[in-house]
Amino acid sequence: MSASVIKSCTASNNPSADQNYRNISGLASGLVDSQQRSIAVSLRKFLLFSAVLVLVGIASCLHAQAGDPKDVLLRKLNEQFVLTTMTADGTDVVKAGSTVTLHINGLQMCSVQAKIPMPNTYKDGRLSQGKFAWGMAMGLAQPNLPTVNVPLRSFVADEKFWVTAFGVEKGAVVFKFFSDVYGDDRYYAQLVFPFDKKGEVPVDDLLKTIAEVITAEPAAAGTSTSPEQSSPVQVPAPVAPPPAASLPDIAPPPPPPDTPPPTIALGQTMDQVTTAFGQPLKVAKVGAKVIFYYKDMKVTFTDGKVSDVE
Questions:
Q1: Running DSSP on this structure, what letter comes out for residue 227?
Q2: Which of 44, 59, 123, 282 is most buried, most CB within 10 Å of its CB?
Q3: What is the pLDDT of residue 29?
Q4: Nearest-angstrom CA–CA distance, 145 and 138
Q5: CB 126 within 8 A of CB 191
């Protein structure tokens, strides 16, 4: 039976039935409109949430493609600086890497006699040293070695040294340097480049700041040169002399007598060794010993006399 028939029959039997029908119809229509509005709101929320997820996904992909800023900085530093390997006591170079040229005055290093390197910080265009903190650390690490007895050396612009380590810590890039031997000591230090640890690592700004203080010069392949010898000198090609006038044939001179090769023996002095073999390529001091490095030989002196030859 149709709604119109029901309405007609009901109205003929009861005068108020028509009004009740209209009320029920209006209520049903309101319920339908409310459900439609609820579905529309839910749909808008779903679309908005989906859009947010898409944006987050895009941002994550872009970040992953760019790489973590800390990893990017370490990769760029590895491209610039080849680390030098030192002996455990820091007195000699095992494998030479990049040497570093200093561009600002005032980088201070301490002797490798100290177990704690001298800390330096570069901030706002100037270098400073944490001598108080270094003294406290030395008091704990080496109470029998007063810091006043530790040799110090201040390096100035254009001096060179080895880079042996670097890393990115929370809020700072940290380098570790070793110098060549000066007098009786080799020196080392730590250099810190601070940055705001609350944000991301500012890769480009840090690279520019580091370049204000140091730049790397790669060592020649297969060599172990000191920082002072790392830059090869360009020797001009020899110029051919003009052709000489014809001269009568002259008998060649007799061959010189055979010269015996130089020898070395235990107990010889440094002067005797340098007279026979020339100046060494490198000199290192290890405790009471002095070591001369030649191309195919290492000579160790104890108390100024040869004690070992390798």
A1: G
A2: 282
A3: 59
A4: 8
A5: no
Lowest mean pLDDT among 147-156, 189-198, 207-216, 238-247: 238-247
Q: Report the pLDDT value the prediction gives residue 165, as an integer from 0 to 100.
A: 95
Q: Is 199 exposed, middle or buried (0-12, 13-18, 19+ CB in 10 A)?
A: exposed
What element of type H or E holds 273? helix 270-277
Supply the angle between the helices 17-66 and 3-13 in degrees, to the nearest 10: 140
> Position of tokens 């990049």?
98
d(CA 114, CA 138): 8
Indicate the residue type of 77: L
Q: Which residues contact 85 (CB under 8 A, 6 or more apart)?
A: 93, 94, 95, 97, 164
Is pLDDT of 30 > 60? Answer: no
Q: Element (H or E) spanning 49, and its range?
A: helix 17-66
C-alpha to C-alpha distance for 122 and 174, rounded to whole angstroms: 10
